[in-house]
Amino acid sequence: MTSIAVQSLSFYYKKEAPILTDITLTFDQRTTAIIGQNGAGKTTLVKLLKGLLKPVSGDVLINDQNTRAVSVSKLAGHIGLVFQNPNDQIFKSKVMDEVMFGPLNVGQPKEEALTNSMNALQMVGMEDKKDDHPYDLSLSERKLISIASIVAMNTDIVIFDEPTIAQDHAGKEIIKRIIHDLQKKGKWVITIIHDMDFVAEAFERTIVLAKGKVLLDGATREIFLQKEVLVQAGLNLPHVTQLGYLIEKNKTFLTIDEFTEDSRF
Ligand SMILES: Nc1ncnc2c1ncn2[C@@H]1O[C@H](COP(=O)(O)OP(=O)(O)OP(=O)(O)O)[C@@H](O)[C@H]1O
Ligand SMILES: [Mg+2]
Q: For the structural domain made of 4-228, what CATH number should be given?
């Protein structure tokens, strides 16, 4: 059974600059967005979940395994992380080799790794690029390749760090569909994201990080009702939500469809 427990977690890189302070969180099957200003500690938090960093104090348990006690390679079979910058992730000279690396590395037999990799490439619409060199591709294509590499590993938990960076509308729609499809397959999807319109459209739960703490945590609609708190945390509201509040103070629209379906408009 999938589980993630963050218990009284504190972390710093340098003692004089605490990044996360006494955070307690659990996750569940809801698609979850983590938002917060630049430097709020979002990437640090997911690196702690993935076991790449260890808590200074407190614990992180992934499927009941404490990240302090389990090797990163063992955890990799349970939790996949798509890096913020694909250039930090991609290192092979052929797209297919890049996507196959993770599945093989977590012990999938070659045939299974091949099938999962082809499926993942199709999912991101890049199957015709399988023989290309990743560095001949654009940044947005490299980001999609790095997403495919992690999806192919078939982990219980999939974390995306800023998946929509460099994506146009079509790319964002692909990523939205991937998040939805992964959830339908029973995966837990956690996503760090700056794009508030995307948060409103794609995530059931939103966690706001600020000053090393969880400032807000709840259903996305409830979070975007807390306008003043969000503004204080340096965050914007989704465009359609802002428009809605101009018309009716206490009604939170999350998507353009919701807005246009409202009988008054
Ligand atoms: N390896 C490191 N060594 C020292 N400080 C670091 C390191 N990585 C990050 N930091 C600092 O820790 C703080 C939190 O960084 P982190 O990358 O977790 O933030 P973030 O919320 O992901 O920001 P962004 O939205 O810009 O990606 C920042 O002040 C950053 O400069
Ligand atoms: Mg970051």
A: 3.40.50.300
The sign one gets for the Cα dihedral 48, 51, 57, 63 is positive
Pocket test for ligand 1, best of 42, 81, 208 (most atoms within 8 A of CB): 42
Mean pLDDT of 193-221: 97
The DSSP 8-state label assigned to residue 20 in this structure reads E
The pair of three-digit structure tokens given for residue 180, joined into one six-digit string: 């939805």
Strands 205-210 and 65-66, bridge-based pairing: unpaired
Q: Is 241's pLDDT higher than 90?
A: yes
- 3 state DSSP class of 235: coil
Is the CB of 212 inside a 6 Å radius of any atom of ligand 1? no
The domain spans of the chain are: 4-228
CA distances in angstroms from 202 to 4, 157, 197, 221, listed in the order given? 21, 17, 9, 12
43 lines ligand 1 (CB under 6 A): yes
Nearest CA to ligand 1 atom 18: 41
Q: What is the pLDDT of residue 263?
A: 66
Query: pTM for the complete prediction?
Result: 0.95
